[in-house]
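User: Can you predict the 3D structure for this chain?
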Amino acid sequence: MAPDAARIAQRAAFVAGAGWADARVLPLAGDASARRFFRLAGPQGSAVLMDDPSGACGPFLAMTGWLRDRGFGAPAILAQDGAAGLLLVEDLGDDLLARVLERDPAMAPAIYDRVTDFLVDLHRHPVPDFVAPLDGPTLAEQVGLFAEWYPQAAGGTGGEKIAPLVARLHAELAADVPPVLSLRDFHAENLLWRGDAPLGLIDYQDAVACHPAYDLVSALQDARRDVDPAIEAACITRYLAATRLDADRFRAAYALLGAQRNLRIMGIFTRLCLRDGKPRYLDFMPRVWGYVRRNLAHPALAPLAGAVAALPAPDEAVIERIRCRCAR
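Assistant: Here is the predicted structure, written as structure tokens:
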């Protein structure tokens, strides 16, 4: 039996064993990973089938339990075969914040206020002991993806100074703040609007312990859509008012984490094209580069700004150069 046919049979057996044999199976949009998602529609309602061929369901299950125990909007687990990488979870609906914002842009201030308040609440809880730290050395290691993939693909050289500078600046600007729980891939494609109910949460299996600015910058500097800079500024002010953190140091750390995160995303998007044959993410590069430049304008990041300044920006010619080398 071909590998894909074998996996289809495995999914069907799992679904039948969970009592959903009569359900219609509809594919849902996936993400940049190998995970696949399906909606099951049957007499008992609807549910979402998560298929992770790596079998790495443990972090998702642990984080789901932690979030639900504290009243956050993670989906209930209906059935599981963690070793096979198959989970059946509660269907939280289709109202991703991204879709709600497309339908009704006027809701943006209220939606991002809710997102900010969610983070304030989340950060009041002690960090669970099963998540890994995302500290200065780890942030530096991760941003190495940028130097590994983007400069050469864009027709330039350099980038090797960026990772050491990120580690040094994190020690200077951010290491004194106790880490909080970060859901990490925290943006409008992974949050669901449910009216007065808590925000629905998905794709949090990569949660870490890190500086409290990390998820805020993830939500407000979204690679896939523009967020009004006035809303971004208001949400930072709202978070600071609720947490009473030092405003100047928080804003400097926010800029650093924004620069690190967006440079890493540039590397990931380049790799997705060149290695994995997924060129569609290249369309987001100009927006992401704009975030990089905005963050590097912070005076505390001058050394990092100097290291990035010599590299090619992702203009139309650079993006086309990368697209032409896309794996097929």
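Residues 138 and 147 are 15 Å apart (CA to CA). The chain has two domains: 3-90, 97-324.
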